[in-house]
Amino acid sequence: MKQKKYTIILGIVALFGLIQFIRPERNQQTNPSRYDIFHKTDTDGRLVALVQSACYDCHSNRTSYPWYASVAPVSWMISSHVKDGKKNLNFSEWILYPEDKKLHKLEEIIEVLEAGEMPPKPYQWLHQEAKLSVEQKNEVVAWANHLLEKRP
Q: At what angle do helices 99-114 and 134-150 cross, to 10 degrees?
């Protein structure tokens, strides 16, 4: 009985060690994108920093990975979340979006912030810098509304 227990534990440890070799691709563009929403704009630096700290890990080509993002299976979950986030909105490729998509994305930014859906609560638990106050959310909403008003 004791031998079976050790064999199972050893098997689990070996499996955990083996899965560490299955590494998802990292989302770490080294230079800021020339297609980024803030590239060559006169946007207030404080607002840029706010959006980047709260949104860019999942919604850009520049994810800042914590240490635990290197441990499988957590690394797989994070990779999946980043891919989903970029599929929905990628600030690093903003200039490449057609105008109608930009308008729709700005409306979605306003909607998810006002509904309190972004940044997601579990993400905020581990990333305090992403926790936005009501005032900060209002700043981002005002910025998105300003961009909507400038559109033709």
A: 160
